[in-house]
Write a sequence for this structure.
RNA sequence: GGAGAAAUGGCAGAGUGGUCGAAUGCGGCGGUCUUGAAAACCGUUGAUCGUUUACGCGGUCCGGGGGUUCGAAUCCCUCUUUCUCCGCCA
């Protein structure tokens, strides 16, 4: 969330910026400023009352020590009234604080200056393309046919065991998953990321820290019995490691990555675009998460982009990189690049990675700061994350783009991991 | 799941109702000494909210929440976590 400070000091700027995200902040920022002012006013009054109370208490203590009971009792006369007032003010302050938080949480992050306005995904801007388009005949099969032909991923069986969106990987299909996970982790390590294997269930605080709660509650599976949530991405546990943490400046950047299974309810998503592996309730993903010095976070974003590009290149997939426009970028992000790979069977682009800089939007919620060497002040860090990569659509594209009459060719970089060079 | 013990600053560890934000040690930072370093010695060293042009000043925080009291790290309730013992278990 944004800080109340920036809204107080640069309200017009905030309103202007949020227009890029098609968000009208006029009314809510006014409420925020009003609530914030009220909160501070209450605190000033409460503080001075408490100060007086402390003073009187000390005097009483001294009087008792000197055995001056009568004077002590006289001093106590006023305390009841003070106590009453303090109680009342604290309640009001808590109320104002809660309301302020409620309001702040509703404001999206400010978009970076390079983000252009736009209604939706059609207005995203392609900033880079790479890879070679596969030479395919018109009748290239979509992956949902290929997985059946080679019996490597079983959607129906997943239906039997669990329900729609929970496929079962078998034989070379299972091995391919394992190969991709190890490949991504090994490449991540080479790029300087430390591996984390976090829990896939998190508590409410974590959900709030990264912004899934309270607004996007329906996205996550909720284990009500224990009030835990199945993670929709490794971003949640890995970023929350740094909740309430103050880092030393020289520790930055903190570069972590983790493989986890991811769980998404995706309530209400149906249609042709979600067929096969295109959208699942459970899938595998390696996520990279970086905590960066605020002045370096856009360099960090570029570094992460290069890493993802490197992965896609090694997998020999044709890709393009999009800079999301204001209408498509997420609530929490300041700047997001999407990676899409071409799928020859479906003849369309599939999103396989989303790399974002959240600036201090997440860290403000997380209270993750670093101690500035020069000023000795604690400052909010910038957080970034990206998929590197999400498996299902990568698998879909690999299968579709590499289909041959003899079977499905495995890209060279993966063969050491799969142990086979063809799926047949 | 049952019984007991505990939770204090970066770490270790005192403190059981009145200048306690908290002794002491270690660590960190600054300094003296030294050609340099070590040792020794001296000083300093938490977070957070508010206020102030500023120097400052005030409030809150001793696992979380609530309570008793003029006053709580200290007493009471509750939750969480850790340790020990028992049970169960991959």
């Amino acid at each position: 969330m944004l800080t109340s400070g920036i809204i107080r000091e640069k309200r017009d700027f905030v309103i202007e910026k949020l227009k890029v995200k098609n968000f009208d902040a006029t009314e809510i920022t006014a409420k925020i400023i009003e609530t914030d002012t009220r909160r501070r006013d209450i605190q000033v009054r409460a503080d001075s009352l408490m100060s007086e109370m402390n003073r009187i208490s000390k005097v009483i203590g001294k009087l008792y020590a000197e055995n001056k009971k009568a004077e002590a009792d006289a001093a106590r006369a006023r305390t009841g009234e003070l106590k009453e007032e303090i109680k009342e003010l604290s309640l009001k302050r808590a109320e104002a604080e809660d309301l302020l938080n409620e309001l702040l949480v509703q404001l999206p992050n400010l978009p970076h200056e390079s983000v252009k306005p736009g209604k939706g995904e059609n207005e995203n801007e392609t900033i880079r393309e790479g890879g070679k388009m596969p030479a395919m005949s018109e009748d290239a099969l979509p992956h949902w046919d290929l997985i059946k032909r080679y019996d490597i991923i079983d959607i129906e069986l997943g239906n039997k065991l669990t329900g729609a969106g929970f496929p079962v990987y078998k034989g070379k299909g299972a091995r391919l998953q394992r190969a991709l996970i190890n490949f991504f982790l090994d490449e991540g390590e080479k790029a300087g990321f430390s591996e984390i294997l976090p829990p896939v269930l998190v508590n409410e605080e974590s959900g709030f820290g990264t912004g899934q709660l309270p607004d996007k509650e329906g996205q996550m599976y909720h284990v009500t019995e224990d009030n835990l949530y199945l993670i929709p991405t490794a971003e949640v546990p890995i970023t929350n490691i740094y909740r309430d943490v103050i880092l030393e400046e020289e520790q930055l950047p903190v570069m972590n990555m983790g493989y986890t299974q991811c769980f998404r309810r995706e309530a209400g998503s149906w249609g042709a675009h979600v067929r096969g592996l295109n959208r699942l309730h459970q899938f595998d993903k390696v996520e990279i998460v970086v905590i960066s010095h605020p002045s370096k976070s856009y360099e960090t974003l570029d570094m992460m982009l290069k890493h993802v590009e490197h992965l896609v290149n090694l997998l020999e997939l044709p890709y393009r990189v999009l800079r999301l426009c204001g209408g498509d970028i997420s609530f929490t992000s300041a700047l997001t690049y999407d990676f899409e790979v071409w799928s020859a069977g479906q003849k369309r682009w599939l999103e396989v990675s989303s790399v974002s800089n959240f600036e201090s939007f997440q860290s403000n919620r997380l209270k993750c700061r670093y101690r500035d060497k020069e000023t000795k002040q604690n400052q909010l860090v910038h957080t970034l994350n990206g998929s590197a990569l999400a498996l299902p659509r990568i698998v879909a594209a690999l299968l579709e783009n590499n289909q041959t009459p003899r079977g499905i060719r495995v890209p060279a970089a993966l063969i050491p991991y799969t142990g086979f060079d063809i799926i047949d």
